[in-house]
Write a structure and sequence with these properties.
The termini are far apart. Strand 8 and strand 9 form a beta hairpin. The chain is built from nine helices and 36 strands. It is α/β, with parallel strands linked by helices and about 475 residues long. The strands form five sheets. The protein has a 22-stranded parallel β-sheet that branches. Strands 5-4-1-6-10-7-11 form a seven-stranded mixed β-sheet, sandwiched between helices. It has a three-stranded parallel β-sheet with strand order 29-32-35, with no helix packed on it. The protein has two domains: about 240 residues, Alpha-Beta Complex (Spore Coat Polysaccharide Biosynthesis Protein SpsA, Chain A); about 210 residues, UDP N-Acetylglucosamine Acyltransferase, domain 1 (3 Solenoid). Helix 1 runs parallel beside helix 5. The structure holds uridine-diphosphate-N-acetylglucosamine and magnesium ion (MG). Uridine-diphosphate-N-acetylglucosamine (UD1) binds next to strand 1, helix 4 and strand 10.
Length: about 475
């Protein structure tokens, strides 16, 4: 949904939006020490997905109700909530969803529109919530009303049932499973757990809740009854897509939602023209931007911010995090790239892998080749430089067309400090060399295989630093001593 259409939609509501997120529940069925709302979907806590949706809706504030693991939840999300003003209120003990939202009342301004969400329902679309909010206005009466997000379920067991008026155009009550009559139990339309309501009215109805029901809890869903008693029309915004309102209660449900989310991401990319070998074996845990004609083979994982330029090909089983890969580059099978905070860049037409590892600060120029079992960290390689086999480049500046031999390493760490290695244009480093930093290899020079280089080398020179080969003719190998009997 575009920024502009969000702005228009929110403006037409004539009220600032305040989101209330219920996140106090225990999540017993997760069988985990981690609070349920901090379990991860697509690499991000469930609660952060919900707060991101609130951010997309340009909410004025989000009030998060915490209880189980409150301190941990508060610490985890306050650091990731970005632009949104997040307030926390604690609910101790947990006496039901109505009691939960009652705790938020002091944090809610009277002029706002409140949307109630659950911290364990991560995949609600922003435009679904905008449509729900619009229903608050379209209740037909002069004052704003209460809008419920509902859907039909073939098996509604466990959910609150939507009881409509005889005309079917408004809602009279939500009846919880345990309080429902046999007739009500046959209703397939259920309450999703999400509602939109002006703050002022919500507050008056919340004050009237009691716990006289089968579970002895304060039900948020009873606000419907009080709205109806006040003559306020309650409307349902009925959707089809169950995933948008599915909550996570068990590891199975978490995995199901993860696959559904990944399939959605895969479809979005394929609609843009990205060719995925198998959308069921593809994972994005962050943001992946692709230009035209990108091909991605099976079992690749993308994390953080990744940008793939035109015509980039990614082989099977690659993990790529926080990297920009320029047009025409190919990343071959089993390559691991993680730019972390510094990022990694791969230049146009470069070839990386199979089995390569690019770490933070690796900057590969155009047409660079990095081959199998080569590790690059905090190093720049200029156009056409090659390190094709079994090598380490750390804290190095590598010039154009340099050839860096198999088994060579930069000894960049003296046990206390890191130092740089500078390899000027057209240098040829033989196999199995150790370059002890700080050191500079002069342009066009050659380093003989097996050398340990601790002093700068002259441009154009051959530098060799290893023991001289000696030959001892007719050498007799030692014989095995016979065992004593
Ligand atoms: C609730 C609805 C039900 C709806 C269903 C949809 C009520 C009374 N019922 O039922 O109509 O069909 O959601 O999933 O609201 N929580 C707190 N504090 C509490 C209790 C719950 O923060 O004291 C949180 C939970 O962590 C969870 C959310 O509120 O995130 C919903 O609670 P849950 O117990 O799952 O409600 P249901 O009984 O499923
Ligand atoms: Mg539930």
């Amino acid at each position: 949904m575009s920024d502009q259409s969000v702005n228009q939609a929110i403006f037409s509501l004539e009220r600032p939006l305040d989101v209330v997120v219920m996140a106090a529940g225990k999540g017993t069925r997760m069988k985990s020490r981690i609070p349920k709302v901090l379990q991860r979907l697509a690499g991000k806590p469930l609660l952060s997905h919900v707060l991101d949706t609130a951010t997309q809706l340009k909410a004025r504030s989000a009030v998060v109700i915490t209880g189980h693991g409150a301190a941990e939840v508060e610490a985890a999300v306050s650091s990731v909530s970005g632009k949104l003003a997040v307030k926390f209120v604690r609910q101790e003990p947990q006496l039901g969803t109505g009691h939960a939202v009652q705790q938020a009342v002091p944090a809610l301004a009277d002029d706002g529109l409140v949307v109630v969400l659950s911290g364990d329902v991560p995949l609600t679309h922003a435009d679904t919530l905008i449509a729900l909010m619009a229903c608050v206005r379209q209740t037909g009466s002069t004052s704003d009303g209460l809008a419920l997000l509902t859907l039909d379920m073939p098996n509604p067991t466990g959910y609150g049932r939507i009881v409509r008026n005889p005309q079917g155009d408004s809602v009279l009550a939500i009846v919880e499973q345990k309080d429902a009559s046999p007739e009500q139990l046959t209703i397939q339309e259920v309450y999703s757990g999400i509602m939109a309501v002006p703050a002022k009215q919500l507050k008056t109805w919340l004050a009237k809740l009691d716990n006289q029901n089968a579970q002895g809890e304060y039900y948020l869903t009873d606000v419907v009854k009080w709205a109806v008693a006040d003559g306020v029309k309650v409307v349902a915004h009925r959707i089809q897509d169950e995933l948008q309102v599915t909550g996570v209660n068990s590891p199975q449900q978490l995995a199901q939602l993860e696959r559904a989310y990944q399939l959605q991401k895969a479809n979005e990319l394929m609609l843009q023209g990205v060719r995925l070998a198998d959308p069921a074996r593809f994972d994005v845990r962050g943001e992946l931007h692709c230009d035209a004609d990108v091909e991605i083979d099976v079992n690749c994982v993308f994390e953080g911010q990744v940008h793939l330029g035109e015509g980039v090909r990614i082989g099977p089983n690659c993990v790529i995090a926080n990297a920009r890969i320029a047009a025409g580059a190919a990343i071959h099978a089993f390559t691991h790239i993680d730019g972390e905070k510094l990022g990694v860049t791969v230049g146009e037409g470069a070839l990386v892998g199979p089995f390569a590892r690019l770490r933070p600060g690796a900057e590969l120029g155009p047409e660079v080749h990095i081959g199998n079992f080569v590790e690059v960290k905090n190093s720049t390689l200029a156009k056409g430089a090659k390190a094709n086999h079994l090598a380490y480049l750390g804290d190095a500046t590598v010039g154009e067309r340099v050839n860096y031999g198999a088994g060579s390493i930069t000894a960049n760490y003296d046990g206390a400090n890191k130092h740089r290695t500078i390899i000027e244009n057209d240098v040829h480093v033989g196999s199995n060399c150790v370059l002890i930093a700080p050191v500079t290899l002069g342009a066009g020079g050659t380093v003989g295989g097996g050398s340990t280089i601790s002093k700068n080398t002259e441009p154009g020179a051959l530098s060799v630093a290893r023991g001289k080969q000696v030959s001892i003719a007719n050498w007799k190998r030692p014989q095995k001593t016979p065992k004593a009997k």
